[in-house]
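Case study 2.
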Amino acid sequence: MTAVTALPKNVDNTETLLASGEYVADRSLATAVYLSLSLGRPLFLEGEAGVGKTEIAKVLAETLGRDLIRLQCYEGLDVASAVYEWNYSRQMIEIRLAEASGDTNRDALASDIFTEEFLIKRPLLRALEPHIGGAPVLLIDELDRADEPFEAYLLEVLSDFQITVPELGAIKADEPPIVVITSNRTREIHDALKRRCFYYWVDYPDASRELEILRRKAPGVGERLAEEVVGFVQHLRKQDLFKLPGVAETLDWAHALAQLDVIQLNPDVVNSTLGTLLKYQDDIARIQGSEAIAILNEIRTQAAASSAGGA
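Prediction:
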């Protein structure tokens, strides 16, 4: 883990902090992150898959020198997987040992086996524990994939930063964790949870910011190729596709092209590598061939016009 860093004192410091983790954030996102950190409120990030929501939590943990605790949500996620469960096998062994030794005091035995020693702590409970270097970053990733009852369970956690274990009582964090919640909006998250958070919609970046991301994350990609990749992807996002490519797909495509020693895009290269950029066959079939050629011609015409204007 990196050295512990103090929380940023203003929005400018927050932009600098994110940039030190190679995250290119616009001013409005840096403002949302700063307010979340300074006021101790969870940050709820919503947006399409691949736009960099999860990365924000990772970068905050890295740059602030905090532990990252990640809860990946899925359909059927329950308290036993997300919060805690009792170690039933150890409890049974303890009961058998007590019976073998002749201890038949059931009340005393029950109090002995329902202690923290027998508690298996899952991500949410671990996030409330003290950590070296300060409170951890708790990432609750893709909350929209979890069921609504679990979403309701989070209300106590996000309101009071405590969890109630019936056998032990309320377990409260001495220092609240830094909470980042993400959603791809496959379903609506209830207003009761959103009210406990600062909300921010993470959109696709514009061309200049995406090019800067590419320069930072894929420094081995030549400038001309990077500009053409960004231009092509920006045009794809104007198409009526089933799944538009996110920043993650842009980076994957750029890395793949660099691995193939591509210096400049051409129709053959685009057609043979679209599978790293688009994830549905219908989308690939729509772009391959004449549409790819049309997009390449358009971005080169725009580049030529831009160069002439600059001259």
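The longest helix spans residues 290-310.
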